[in-house]
Amino acid sequence: MGVRTIVDHLLESARNESSTIRRSSVLLLFAYCSQSKANISSNLSQLIRGLILLFTDSNEQVLNQSWEALNAITKSMESKEQMEYVSEVRNAVRYAVSGLKAGAHNRKTQLLLPGFCLAKGIAPILPIFREAILNGNPEQKEQAAHGLSEVIELTSAEALKPSV
């Protein structure tokens, strides 16, 4: 019960209007996810959704810390476990994109998710898609391929270079 309370509070604070509070909350989330010995497995869906939503933040430090926290979570997951989160990642990305404003378009009117446009921006979620594509059942493979395609469309060419 304590883990859920901590995660709920930190994710709620990460949506605060104050960039200082958002940065602090995400930094604590990263530390908690990467250093805590607590079992966060029952909160993985919530963390994935919340952190991908933070990939829309306008503050670069919040984006970077959100990326670090999501990366720590993905690395803590077993390969077989990662496959189970393909639809969760896809839904989180869709939800995050739905909240983006028209100002997030580049000159070619391509909608970009700011967190994916960081250097290695898509790296935390690539293992999830890769595992499903390589080892999933046909439905999981299809979902992962669609998800990867959607993510690539939301990522700048510059940010994709390290992943290709």
Automatic annotation (TrEMBL):
It comes from the Eukaryota. One of its GO terms (biological process) is cellular response to amino acid starvation. One of its GO terms (cellular component) is cytosol. Keywords: Repeat. Residues 2-120 form the Stalled ribosome sensor GCN1-like HEAT repeats region domain. SUPFAM superfamilies: ARM repeat (SSF48371). Pfam families: HEAT_GCN1 (PF23271). The keyword Repeat applies. One of its GO terms (molecular function) is protein kinase regulator activity. InterPro entries: ARM-like, ARM-type_fold, HEAT_GCN1. This is Stalled ribosome sensor GCN1-like HEAT repeats region domain-containing protein.
